[in-house]
Amino acid sequence: MIQTYRQTGERWKAAYSDLRTEFLTTADDLKKQMAELNEQFGNERAAWKKEAARSRTSNILWIIVAGVAGYAVGR
To answer: pLDDT digit string (tens) for 10-63?
Structure first.
């Protein structure tokens, strides 16, 4: 009977060890995936800001051209 309890205890310990290992592996994988996603979002954010700045510059240039053309025509 003592041996049965011992075997049951060993099985529980082995199962706990397996689950703990699986949990830690999954947690590490999730950390890596989150870091990759964060890097991708950072890259997209930087590209969006660059595109927005380029768009603003282009719009300002067109406004200046339109203003100069309007001034030249009105003169």
So the answer is: 999 999 999 999 999 999 999 999 999 999 999 999 999 998 888 888 888 888
How far apart are the C-alpha atoms of 20 and 38, rounded to whole Å?
A: 27
- Count of domains in the chain? 1
Cα Rg of the chain (Å, integer):
32
Query: Rounded to an integer, what distance in angstroms lies between the CA atom of residue 35 and that of residue 49?
Result: 21
pTM: 0.57
Domain, as residue range, for 11: 1-75
Dihedral over Cα of 40, 44, 49, 51: its sign: positive
Coil, helix or strand at residue 27: helix
